[in-house]
Amino acid sequence: MSEPVLHMRNITKRFPGVVANDHICFDLNKGEIHALLGENGAGKTTLMNIFYGLYQPDEGEIWLNGRRVTIHSPRDAIALGIGMVHQHFTLVPTLSVTENVILGAETGQLGILDTRSPRARVAAIAQEYGLEVDPDALVRTLPVGVQQRVEIIKALYRNAQVLILDEPTAVLTPLEVERLFATLRALVQRGVSIIFISHKLKEVMAIADRITVLRQGRVVGSTTPAEADEAKLASMMVGRPVMLQVEKAPAQPGEVVLSVHNLKVMSDRRAVAVDGVSFEVRAGEIIGIAGVEGNGQSELVEAITGLRPPVHGEVLLCGRPLPHALPRAAIEAGMSHVPEDRHKYGMVAQQPLFVNLVLSTFHKPPFARRGLLSLRTMREHARRLIREFDVRTPNEQVRIASLSGGNQQKAVVAREFSRPMRLLVAAQPTRGVDVGSIEFIHKRIVQARDQGAAVLLVSAELDEVMSLSDRILVMFKGKIVGERDGRSADRAEIGLLMMGKAEEAST
Amino acid sequence: MIRRWFWLGSAWPAVASVLMALALAALVMVITGSDPLAAYGALFQGAFLRPGTATRPTAFFETLVSATPYLILALGISIGFAAGLFNIGAEGQLYMGALASVSVGFLVKGLPWFVHLPLAIAAGVLAGVIWAGIAGWLKATRDAPEVVTTIMLNYIAYAVVNYMVNGPLRHTGTAPRTPDIEPSAVLPTLLPPPERLHWGLILAIACAVGYYLLMNRSALGLQIRLVGENRHAARYAGINVNGTYLIAMVLSGALCGLAGAVEVLALYRYLPTEFTVGYGFDSIAVALLGQGNPIGIALAALLFGAMANGSGFMQFSAGVSNYIIAVVQAFIIVFVAAPGIARDVLVNWWARRIRRKPAAQGGEA
Amino acid sequence: MIETLLEVLGRIDYLFLLGASLRAATPIVFAALGGIFSERSGVINIGLEGMMLTSAYVCYKVAVLAASPWVGLLAGVVAAVLIALLHGVISIRYQTNQVVSGTVINIFAAGITGFLFRVLGAQESAPYLPNMNMPGVRDVPLLGNQPMLTWVMVGMVGLATFVLFRTTWGLRTRAVGELPRAADTAGVPVNTIRYANLAIGGAMAGLGGAFFTLHTVSSFTPLMTSGQGFIGLAAMIFGNWTPLPAMLAALLFTVPQALAGQFQMFGVPLPYQIISTLPYVLTIIALAGVVRRSTPPAALGVPYAK
Ligand SMILES: Nc1ncnc2c1ncn2[C@@H]1O[C@H](COP(=O)(O)OP(=O)(O)O)[C@@H](O)[C@H]1O
Ligand SMILES: [Mg+2]
Question: What is the ipTM of this complex?
Answer without folding.
Answer: 0.92
